[in-house]
Amino acid sequence: MRILLTGGTGYIGSHTAITLSSAGHEVVLLDNLCNSQIDVVARIEKILGKKIVFYQADVRDTDALIAILQTEKIDAVIHLAGLKAVGESWQKPIDYYACNVGGSISLASAMKVAGVRILVFSSSATVYGDPKYLPYDEEHPTSPTNPYGRNKLQVEQLLHDLANSSDEWCITCLRYFNPVGAHESGLIGENPNGIPNNLMPVVAQVATGRLPLLNIYGNDYETIDGTGMRDYIHVMDLAEGHLTAIEWIAKNNGCHYFNLGSGTSHSVLELVSEFEKASGKTIPRKVISRREGDLPNYYAQADKALRLLHWKTSRNLSDMCESTWRWEQQRLA
Ligand code: NAD
Ligand code: WQD
């Protein structure tokens, strides 16, 4: 299939482009570069050994989307473009609703006009909110506790209603847990603007000396060692999940939801220890107060993706840390 990836030069989009192209699909990337760099296109081309089509555009520009969908004869779309920082979403709700919800409405409108009906949407485990039970399965109540999570749920609801309006639509919402790691080449990886919010990029930048130490947000949780636990998933496992999802949804109409996670969680201290092994570096750290809104522990029940998509994770925490370190070193080269 010819697949448009919105947010295609972003962290998950760039890795997904590699996996889709390597599996024989043709990818077209679109991005407004508000949180990624144009050189990612060349890096993807170097890994693939071929040219790829890139459009610098905003998903809120519906006319541009219609033109691209028609000109490029797109068969399916993976919608990754969006703003994703929970903390920032409290400070900039208008930006987040305009980009994440408005952008998705714009894309769906353009797809309707262009006659493209196959869509994979980047959702998030954040839609679940405080766990009523663990692991989260796809039937867990959705009650997001921040503007970003509400954006994701609202888009899911839009897509549910869109699929109900006409049986031509083939839509799947992928609820990612905590993507980390990088492509084995070390040529692409997570490259956040400014000081990162997420644990893995912070640890990586402490290891290279770009940050002085890791602040650990609390060690008094009821977890194995008191620090927060999360379901980390290698970004290449996640990319493979997109491949299986888009090939499945192309043959199944309606709107479907899948958790993409490993099904296990690791603590902050476990991740830091693995990263020290992978990098040979000591990570200076300091325990400070809990971060507002953090949950003690959450992880995925990913049986549905295994049952229907025949997908499950294959890479472990060590692979995640080693690949992140390779990427971080390459950035400094
Ligand atoms: P990212 O910021 O690296 O990638 C998003 C890309 O979208 C960036 O390249 C950015 O420039 C682009 N973009 C943003 N707004 C745009 C717009 N209006 N028009 C066109 N391009 C736009 O983030 P990521 O980690 O690759 O996340 C991709 C998607 O996955 C996002 O929708 C995010 O909410 C979702 N997600 C991410 C995580 C995570 O922890 N990384 C977890 C769950 C869900
Ligand atoms: C992981 C653990 C922190 C940084 C976020 C978003 C979620 C999704 C994935 C988009 C927690 C601890 C972190 C640090 C720390 N993104 N930590 N010091 O919060 O689980 O999920 O990213 O969809 O929506 O909420 O990920 O990496 O920020 O935190 O101690 O400097 O590491 O307390 O226990 P999180 P994270």
Can you characterise this structure?
This protein has a domain at 2-181 and 232-262 and 298-313: Rossmann fold (3-Layer(aba) Sandwich). It is built from eleven helices and 13 strands. The model has no long low-confidence stretch (mean pLDDT 97). With 333 residues, the protein is an alpha/beta fold. 41% of the residues lie in helices and 17% in strands. The strands form four sheets. The chain has a seven-stranded parallel β-sheet, sandwiched between helices. It has a two-stranded parallel sheet with strand order 7-10. Helix 5 (93-114) packs parallel to helix 6.
Comma- or semicolon-separated keywords:
7-stranded parallel sheet; 13 strands; binds UDP-4-deoxy-4-formamido-beta-L-arabinopyranose; binds nicotinamide-adenine-dinucleotide; alpha/beta; Rossmann fold; globular; 333 residues
Number of helices: 11
Low-confidence stretches: none
Summarize the main sheet: 7 strands, parallel
What's the arrangement of strands in the largest beta sheet?
A: 3-2-1-4-5-6-11
Cofactors and ligands present? nicotinamide-adenine-dinucleotide, UDP-4-deoxy-4-formamido-beta-L-arabinopyranose
Q: How many beta-strand runs?
A: 13
Shape summary: globular
CATH architecture of the domain at 2-181 and 232-262 and 298-313: 3-Layer(aba) Sandwich
Please trace the helix and strand order, writing H or E for each element: EHEHEHEHHEHEEHEEEHEEHEHH
Give the full name of the CATH homologous superfamily of the domain at 2-181 and 232-262 and 298-313.
Answer: NAD(P)-binding Rossmann-like Domain
